[in-house]
Amino acid sequence: MFDSLLEWDRETFIYLNSLGIEQYDFIWSTVTTITTWIPLFILFILIFFKVYPKKQALYSILTVLVMILFVITLTDLTKEVIERLRPNNDLEINSVIRILKHAKGYSFFSGHASSSFSITTIIVLFLRRELKWVSVFYVWPVLFTLSRIYVGVHFPIDLIVGAVVGVLCAVFFYWLHRRLILPYLKLNHL
Fold this sequence. Notes:
The protein has helices at 2-18, 25-31, 38-51, 54-82, 111-127, 139-150, 156-185. The chain is elongated. Helix content is 66%, strand content 0%. The protein has one domain (2-185). By secondary structure, it is an all-alpha fold.
């Protein structure tokens, strides 16, 4: 069963990666870079300060930052324990795939997926009552995550597991925020 899953993962990756079109390489290489998204992060911060009082906005942002550190640490520890090669470093397939990034380290699970889905999910949880359209922010982690297949550095399972871990971490940290921070701030409307 496990071998079948890994075979599906490898074949699906090769198929999806082969759909890449050279004319769009620059776009996907830009999408996969974290610095491309700095304006979005600034927008998140500005929205917090627009919809919440300053103290509440600061504590909400602090919760997001602590969650990000947790997710990055969990992701890095998991990669070191599992030690799954990235597609671009896998000698069995790297000669038949398109490689736009030469990432080092291990593949399982994707830090791009876990961090982007955790950030977006906690942002949505914090702002869903104030901004009905906040779910549109999920466009970012979907594009950011899919770019990892396009550039040749992650298998689909890496991305799926990373996204699930990110969402679960966001829900957990939102719950902690509601249980530990809101009583301190004497606020109950989040």
